[in-house]
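User: structure tokens for this one?
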Amino acid sequence: MSLDVQEMGPVDYMVVEFPGGHMTGQGLPLLVDITDRGIIRILDLVFIRKLPDGSFMRIDLTERSNDEGDGLEVFDGASSGLLDDDDISAAADVIQPGSMAGMIVYENRWAAPLATALRRGGAMLVASGRIQIQALLAAIDAAEATSARPNKSA
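Assistant:
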């Protein structure tokens, strides 16, 4: 895979756990859609299985696709070389034994023109982050609980 980093958008990763190794495939059409529409570009896609004893193994994407007919073959060859054994081990550390996980590295192509223009103007991205949905939900719940309390100062 050829990468022209001067023309790229921000790159993110996700580790998605499938408890018990059960994959329904419900997200796959959406992933294919946003890839086909150029919103993201898949740089790496790796599947791992964490065994009950805590060890883990990498699952070959093409073997899984052929065995289960789940349509993952569309991402065959999605390997930029960004993920190494340490990354895969770190992903295995955060999933439960007996589960499977997909680890995806993707470029946010929708942001590439902005990122490119900023770089050409001499700007540098110096920080980036992501708010996890669980943290967002907790903050909303806390704010709603606070606003629901009667105001005793009146």
